[in-house]
From TrEMBL, chain A:
Lineage: superkingdom: Bacteria
Protein name, entry field: Sigma-70 family RNA polymerase sigma factor
Family: Belongs to the sigma-70 factor family. ECF subfamily.
Pfam families found in the cross-reference section: Sigma70_r2 (PF04542), Sigma70_r4_2 (PF08281)
Domain RNA polymerase sigma-70 region residues, every copy: 22-88
Keywords assigned by UniProt, alphabetized: Sigma factor, Transcription, Transcription regulation
Domain RNA polymerase sigma factor 70 region 4 type: 123-173
UniProtKB/TrEMBL annotation, chain B:
UniProt cross-references to InterPro entries, sorted A to Z: DUF4179
Residue ranges annotated for the DUF4179 domain, each copy included: 49-138
Protein name: DUF4179 domain-containing protein
Pfam families linked: DUF4179
This protein's record includes keyword Membrane: yes
Keywords of this entry: Membrane, Transmembrane, Transmembrane helix
Residues that span the membrane, as ranges: 53-70
Species of provenance: Robertmurraya mangrovi
């Protein structure tokens, strides 16, 4: 039994503090996923809150949860997609990112190399946030949440070929800040 | 995953991991058990007994990307108008060719089946030799199902679509990976989007659509689509009511939809290809449009790059079609996209309002390189006919 499984059991036995312990390691990632989907602090926080409630109920209902982290983060992704649907949120590639919304960490005095890297990272983050929804969502699911193409396909209900196309476009856009080798040619080949 | 893909992954993780969690969210997480307990202690009003279950997360959000609101008995054009407002994900939000084709569809509509007080009805089918678009709705018998005001969307526990010979097109099943049909004789008929039943603005029925595209180079359309659905379940948790139970509608809904031949019978209008050159970033690119096929619902094209790209470079085009009057037909999707310069793009159709002249307009060419890529304005018009 791993730590998460033990904490789930403690939750089910009525130990309220166990739930906080269980979710705390995943909260940052959950919030980052939701924020990157929704581009709104308020909506992201609401969505993660709802996912937390749903997760707790799932645990108390003794839902079969084999890997809590994967299950919970997928739940957050699902609910974030749901929020997009509910709000009819329209986003465009021209949307500029309010950097203050992202509350990036970082020391004020850093070696030059670190600063350069940070500058590039900030630019990358801005570019990710500026991607159209369909590109940004698959980018986060694939590169950040580590979902497979099949898992993404199941989650957002589009064929893997379409996901590959979207990832390709995202890579091309992000290539402005992250230099890639262009060694994959046909989408769907070995690069994936 | 290639080496640079790994680099991108690391960079993205570094970036997103630097986002701080609000303190209020951390506090909320700690208090969730108490909040839920408090909510559960309040009285629950149930109008009827709901079967309690939890949705499978993998399937819960499937199809939720395409949000839309439609009127109760919408004409397709009206649906598309509604979709245009909030259809924020789909590349088809400005697909006027599809809307125009709908006006020529002879589909009578109203193919329906009912089981356990729930009906599944196919309202509209637009089909040609490339693409099939279906609009459907699910109606709940209010006597049997009660007035479930906060039920917003449903999902299929199992959805299977085959052709008239029983050949699989797609099968989605809760807790299982989606299965797709195989390529047959050069035709590969695949679902592109399946929108789950979503409640309309008038809070009555649940509308959805299914879009299928033949991604092969051989023309093909099934004579009939056979749709089988087993059980419907609530897709979205009403988290503002954490004690509210999920809702299932058990049943089997099977129907066959014969595709109206009015548009299917129309052969695509094919135009011979041509070779040409465009200049981008000081480089001459020799290209070949191998064919242009104009279907009633989309225009399909195959483009090859004849020039040799420098090692480590890829290429991507931004383009549209334009007629002699400057009317633009947008690029809507790709059948195949590569960074070798070879692609099969799809554009809005003009089948029913054929222009005298058609131009392929290259707006930009983007070279993707390991040094960060370059985008160059092109603005070159190639006359296709």
């Amino acid at each position: 039994m791993n730590i998460d499984e033990a904490l789930i059991l403690r939750c089910q036995h009525g130990e309220k503090s166990a739930f906080g312990e269980l979710v705390k390691p995943y909260l940052q990632k959950a919030y980052a996923i939701s924020l990157s989907f929704l581009r709104s602090k308020e909506l992201a926080e609401d969505t993660v809150q709802n996912a937390l409630i749903e997760a707790y109920i799932g645990i108390m209902e003794k839902k079969d949860i084999r890997s809590f982290s994967g299950w919970f983060l997928t739940l957050v992704s699902s609910r974030s997609l749901d929020t997009i649907r509910k709000t009819g949120k329209i986003t465009t590639t021209e949307t500029s990112l309010d950097q203050s919304q992202l509350e990036l960490n970082g020391a004020t005095t850093e070696p030059e190399e670190h600063l350069l890297k940070k500058e590039r990272n900030n630019l990358l983050l801005q570019m990710i946030m500026a991607l159209p929804d369909e590109l940004r969502i698959v980018t986060i699911l694939y590169y950040y949440q580590d979902l497979s193409l099949k898992e993404i396909s199941q989650l957002i209900n589009v064929p893997t070929s379409t996901i590959k196309t979207r990832l390709f476009r995202a890579r091309v856009s992000l290539g402005k800040v992250i230099p890639f080798q262009n060694e994959f040619k046909k989408v769907g080949d070995s690069a994936w | 995953m290639v080496k640079n893909d790994e680099q991108l992954k690391n960079e993205i993780k570094t970036n997103l991991d630097s986002i701080e969690v609000p303190e209020s969210l951390i506090r909320f997480a700690e208090n969730v058990p108490s909040l839920v307990e408090k909510e559960l202690s309040s009285p629950i009003k149930k109008k009827f007994k709901w079967k309690k279950t939890f949705t499978t997360i993998g399937a819960t959000a499937a199809g939720l990307l395409l949000a839309w609101n439609v009127s109760m008995t919408p004409a397709f054009g009206k649906i598309m108008e509604s979709l245009g407002v909030i259809w924020s994900i789909s590349p088809y939000q400005d697909d006027n060719g599809l809307t125009e084709a709908s006006k020529h569809s002879g589909f009578a509509g109203g193919v329906t089946t009912e089981n356990n007080g729930v009906s599944f009805t196919v309202d509209e089918v637009i089909a040609d030799k490339k693409r099939v678009f279906i609009v459907y709705h699910v109606a709940l018998d209010k006597e049997k199902s009660g007035n479930i005001e906060d039920l917003q969307d449903l999902w299929f526990e199992e959805l299977k679509v085959t052709d008239e010979k029983g050949r699989l097109i797609v099968k989605q099943k809760k807790d299982s990976l989606t299965e797709y049909g195989e390529e047959t004789n050069g035709a590969h008929f695949l679902p592109r989007y399946i929108q789950t039943p979503t409640k309309t603005e008038d809070q009555k029925d649940f509308y959805g659509f299914m879009e299928f595209v033949n991604n092969g180079e051989t023309n093909y359309t099934p004579e009939e689509l056979r749709i089988s659905i087993k059980n419907l379940y609530e897709a979205t948790n009403r988290t503002e009511k954490p004690n509210r139970e999920y809702i299932n509608f058990d049943g089997n809904w099977n129907l066959g939809v014969k595709l109206d031949n009015t548009i299917v019978a129309k052969e695509p209008k094919t135009h011979a290809g041509k070779k040409f050159s465009i200049e981008a970033g000081g480089k001459n690119l020799d290209l070949s449009v191998d064919y242009v096929k104009v279907y009633p619902t989309m225009t399909s094209m195959k483009i090859d790059l004849l020039s040799k790209l420098d090692e480590g470079k890829g290429i991507l085009y931004t383009y549209h079609l334009e007629d002699e009057n400057g009317k633009i037909y947008n690029h809507i999707e790709d059948e195949i996209l590569t960074d070798l310069g070879n692609t099969r793009p799809q554009f809005e159709s003009f089948y029913f309002n054929y222009p005298k002249e058609l131009y392929l307009v290259f707006d930009e060419v983007e070279f993707t390189t390991r040094d960060g890529g370059e985008t160059h304005k092109v603005g070159k018009k190639i006359r296709l006919f």
